[in-house]
Amino acid sequence: MDRTSLLKKWLPGLALVLLAFVSTPAHARNEPLYFALEVRRDGRLIAQPKLLGEAGRTLRAERRRPGATVPDYRLVLTPKGEGDSFQLQVDLSLPEGEGHSQLALLHGQERKLQLGRVPGELEVSLLLMKVDSPEFRALMRLTEPATGTVKSVSSSI
Asked: What does the pLDDT look like over 110-143, one tens digit per residue?
């Protein structure tokens, strides 16, 4: 088989693969994400994790005191990019119980979830941001003003 016939045979398939990749919207690909959470049990703050993850990949976090056999909490986030929003599955386990929720969030959106049997029993506040967005940089104070200048950053979420 010569190069020309091999090229004619494989070129259409390669073109389809490239077209599928290029036509996939950037927001549907695995995108780095930042999560800021507050977990409250009966109104008392018990955890405040800040995590970096990626759309399309499950993120697991756990806090365990030295020598403890049971973690203080175990958190599992499963984000998936869907158009302009992110579908998120949240699973939280505490020694006293557990909770589960599914929701859709936009970049920069914050939501409160009730995971307990009654409102206020187990509450999670969740903020999702795309990493390296102007809002994320403002939140992380990654943009520093030049010496001798004053810079004001505002963000609406």
From this structure: 999 999 888 889 999 999 999 988 788 888 885 5
- Please tell me whether residue 84 adopts helix, strand or coil conformation: coil
Query: Domain extents for the chain?
Result: 31-140
How far is CA 90 from each of CA 14, 16, 26, 63, 103, rounded to the nearest angstrom?
A: 38, 36, 24, 16, 8
pTM for this entry: 0.69
| Secondary structure letter of residue 70 according to DSSP | S
Strands (E), the chain: 32-41, 44-47, 50-54, 59-63, 73-82, 85-94, 97-106, 110-114, 122-130
Per the structure block, which two tokens stand in for 108? 């920069």
Distance of CA 28 to the CA centre of its chain: 13
Take residue 54 and report the two structure tokens written for it. 């990626």
Two tokens, residue 101: 């929720």
C-alpha triplet 126, 129, 133: angle, nearest 5°: 160
